[in-house]
Specification:
Strand order of the largest sheet: 1-4-3-2-5-6-8-7
Largest sheet: 8 strands, mixed
Radius of gyration: 17 Å
Number of helices: 8
Structural class: alpha/beta
Helix content: 25-40%
Length: about 220
């Protein structure tokens, strides 16, 4: 392991906004995010596969009256968002180091108000379909965790994943679905405040159109 990674892991161990294995809070958070961490009663918003946390921190800058939790398994990447939030005194931001399939271990039913899925691995092989973050098994988990009228957002450059998601949603009990195949040429772009993940910046520079959708469960 590189020296830089070791330094980042050490800082993650000390960072109060990084909830990860080995810390006391890691096993106590389900149903207790407000009581044990935020202590402000604000809505909770998740970013799944947050990477460096650009979107988590970016949204937190726009919405100080919401709480944001970036979730990923890659601690060395999450370090960036964690440190930025600390430096900017964003007390309404946290990072959770875990796999997405374990969400229901850390959040109680109806504890979450919004979920952002930002540029997930499209898992294009048929045998990996169940690992796509918009597969029905994940959608069912999101349904349980979200409050009534809670929103799910998806941003991706991958046409295959986007079309797959729209097809899956046809068999789901949802409402208020809106979507675009070219976000930057759509009026929906106003919902994003110019916030970009690292991958999004790379993809747009390469000329890929960014797809976006949002919906709520019935």
């Amino acid at each position: 392991m590189s020296r830089k990674k070791l330094e980042r892991f050490a800082q993650n161990d000390e960072a109060p906004n990084m909830i990860q294995p080995g810390k006391e809070l890691f096993t106590q958070m389900k149903g207790n995010w407000d009581a044990l961490y935020f202590q402000n009663g604000q809505p909770i918003v998740l970013e799944l596969g947050c990477g460096r946390g650009e979107y988590t921190v970016g949204l937190a800058s726009v919405y100080p009256h919401k709480n944001f939790i970036g979730i990923d398994i890659k601690g060395a990447r999450m370090w960036r968002g964690s440190q930025t939030a600390l430096q900017e005194n964003m007390h309404h931001v946290a990072f959770l180091r875990t796999k997405i399939q374990n969400l229901d271990v850390f959040f109680a039913e109806k504890e979450v108000s919004e979920i952002w899925i930002t540029f997930p691995d499209p898992r294009p092989r048929d045998r990996d379909e169940k690992r796509r973050l918009t597969h029905p098994r994940f959608l069912e988990m999101y349904r349980k965790l979200l409050k009534e009228d809670g929103l799910v957002h998806l941003k991706t450059d991958n046409s295959g994943l986007f079309d797959y998601t729209l097809e899956v949603l046809q068999s789901q009990k949802i409402k208020n679905l809106i979507f675009t195949h070219d976000l930057y040429q759509s009026e929906l772009n106003n919902l994003h405040f110019g916030i970009k993940t690292n991958y999004e910046s790379i993809f747009t520079e390469q000329g890929f159109a960014i797809k976006y959708l949002q919906f709520s469960f019935l």
